[in-house]
Amino acid sequence: MIKEVTDAHEAEARIGKLRLLEALLFASAEPLDEETLAGRIGPEVGALLEELRAHYAPRGVNLVRTGGGWAMRTAADLAPQLRREEEVSRKLSRAAIETLAIIAYHQPVTRGEIESIRGVATSKGTLDLLMEHGWIRPGRRRETPGRPLTWITTDHFLDHFGLESLRDLPSVDDLRAAGLLDSRPVLLGLGGMGDDGALPSGDGDSGHDGE
Questions:
Q1: Helical pair 34-41 and 45-56, crossing angle rounded to 10 deg
Q2: Which of 20, 25, 184, 203 sits 20 to 30 Å CA-CA off 172?
Q3: Cβ(127)–Cβ(111) under 8 Å?
Q4: How far, CA to CA in Å, does 44 sit from each of 90, 152, 155?
Q5: Which run of H or of E encompasses 205?
Q6: Same domain, 111 and 192
Q7: Global pTM?
């Protein structure tokens, strides 16, 4: 009898934690990392997250891991039906798109290295625009003469483009097949990424926890 009561209390407590976890994820505008969630839920948060992810897998809203956090997102197969075509008042320039791609595939990368790959100077305004979007941030300084600043992508970059980690970036072959690469080797160079789409190992500062 005592065991049954104890089991009932434990089950009730687990359901309460699941409900709280669900509420926290729905209420947050940004992905929440496990450390933050564990502070509210407890050390079993990892198992509870997986339980919620399985529960929402067949539903219209899914629990997904993005970068170093967890977030509720529209199911991928429903996204096209919810998307509205709107005119964007401030489209990214070709320079901004190329710069973002180079940072994503070669990070950590300095401004000088970005310019070496693109073959043209990179204006400060281009980097500022990408920072305004929350897609890039400064990384560590290189231990080379002048100690140049490096640039890396953010967790918001992964979340915006629906990536769990940088390993989910499309390969160069995929980009070519989609017509997103022209004859210039925009994403190549610096010995960073080859035609097989492999990412560089970098200097240990990828900008994303948990990878």
A1: 110
A2: 203
A3: yes
A4: 44, 32, 24
A5: none
A6: yes
A7: 0.53
